[in-house]
Amino acid sequence: MTNKLKGVMTSVMDSIRGFKKISFREIEQAAFRIACKTQIKAMRVFLEDLDEEIYKNRDKKRYESVDRKDRTIETILGIPVTFKRRYYKDRKADNYTFLLDEALGLPKRSKQSPLAREIAVRMAVDGPSYRIASESLERIFGGRVISHEGIRQNLIRTSDEAKVLLQRERNNKKSKESPRIIFIEVDGLYASLQKQSRRSTEEKVGVIHKGWKPRSGCRREYALKDVHIVRTQSSSHEEFWSTVSEVLYSEFEINEKTIIVVNGDRAKWIRMCEEWFGDCTILYQVDRFHLLRTLGGIFKRGSESYYRLRDAIDKDPTGARFMAALAEESASLSGKKRLEAEVLLRDLEDIADSVCDYRVRLSAMGYDIKGLRPMGAAEAQMDRFADRIKGRGQSWSPWGLDAMMRLLGMKFEGRLEELLHNLAVKQEPLPGEKKLVKKQASQVAKTLLEQYGDVWSHSMPVMDVGRFRSGGLSKVFHKIAAGW
Q1: CA-to-CA dists, residue 47 to 44, 72, 100, 108, angstroms
Q2: For residues 157 and 335, what is the distance between their CA atoms, to the nearest angstrom?
Q3: Is 328 part of any domain?
Q4: Mean pLDDT value across residues 217-240
Q5: How many whole angstroms separate alpha carbon 397 and alpha carbon 200?
Q6: pTM exceeds 0.90, yes or no
Q7: pLDDT band at 6 (very low <50, low <70, confident <90, very high)
Q8: Which residue range forms the structural domain that includes residue 363?
Q9: Which of 33, 277, 326, 449 lies at a C-alpha separation of 20 to 30 Å from 186?
């Protein structure tokens, strides 16, 4: 840089500092808020112009314009948009309606924009709380977008819509796959309730999948294939398995050749799975994590007895060798540990084969087990549910818990983004959007100049020294002063 140019730059900076003390942060904040306000004005004009177009092109014999009314919608910009639209009498349906609201898909009495609702619900599902989601939106956009109670109400409404959508999809499903093996991993999650006669409830959760596939970009890691998460809040095991059965038969072609492997702890409601799936082969497996944890609690993890029992689990597909070893090791115990071992023996007596890995049993039945992996995904899924449901000691209303669990399930299935997008506004470019953006950019610049006008209103030396001597800076500052 030449000495002359350095002198010019120093003169420019001295000129700016001498007129007003402002920081880049302040300019950035001002530009953002001005852009938001300009956008809101543009939205109002656009919406009212769209209402005018609907008015001109409506079915005049059917729709009679009887009034114009205001509507205010909270937006993601932290500033509400208020616009007027026509109120029509529908002569055919004999009722009244806002055609603009119908065209835009705006729900009646909704105070939030569909996009604000989409973002708020997603942030609430991701956690850790409704209040933090509301505060985060406020920090991002510089103003209140939606209250924590508004987020909760929108999440419950979204869950209700998701329930209807999922049922409609199942009813309309035409082609069904016929997988050789279907896996169901089952567990329960206790959640605290608020203002209820009972202090907690159990969410029964089933993770249905078709096996495993390599995880993209990760060597030697696997993900579940075609995951469906089923859950109920009812204490009835019949309702849970009825729901699982409904999902299975709507998604898959199930016959006598189908193998269903159910993995879960030793809870009685999980072990009742065999009653619900007709003539197909059912293999129930005691979850290995829970079984080893129980054995470690009785025989002390790391002891010789523990290792003997652990090694015996998969030696015999009938479970007889494990049961014999368990009986023998239990005889050497005394007191409380002896009682715990006897309870375990009695509990496993009728399901001894379920302690053995399903792959060992399938192999003994003559099936090819290549590509099959250990089960246990339910425990990992429960941790993900628990992190949002119990991570901060929350308590829930039954309907709030039901809504959150349903949307968490869709998130873990990988379907939440699609659902929220479909329930919100279309993300396609609007007619004339590029032209509108260009116009708004100019407006933001001009408004900034009005706010900080005294900075630019003086004659800066750099503006008068010529393009060559200023290294092109004179042209830049002339454009700024002219509002682009």
Answers
A1: 5, 12, 8, 17
A2: 54
A3: yes
A4: 85
A5: 10
A6: no
A7: low
A8: 175-394
A9: 326
Residue 194 is predicted with a pLDDT of: 86
35 plus 8 within the same structural domain: no
Scan for tokens 């696997």, then name that residue.
Answer: 222
pLDDT per residue as tens digits for the range 409-429 = 999 988 888 888 777 644 444
Is it the case that residue 151 has pLDDT exceeding 80? yes
Q: Which residues pair with residue 223 across a beta bridge?
A: 213
Q: What is the chain's length? A: 484
Q: How many domains does the chain have?
A: 3
Tell me, what's the pLDDT at 173?
A: 72
- Specify whether 103 is located in the same domain as 186: no
Contact 251, 229 (CB under 8 A): no
Residue listed under structure tokens 């309606």: 97
- Choose between 204 and 2: higher pLDDT: 204
> Is residue 131 predicted with pLDDT exceeding 50?
yes
User: Predicted confidence band at 471 (pLDDT cuts at 50, 70, 90)?
Assistant: very low
Domain co-membership, 99 together with 194: no
* Mean pLDDT computed over 84-101: 93
Tell me which range, 62-71, 171-180, 468-477, is most confidently predicted by mean pLDDT.
62-71
Same domain, 11 and 67: no
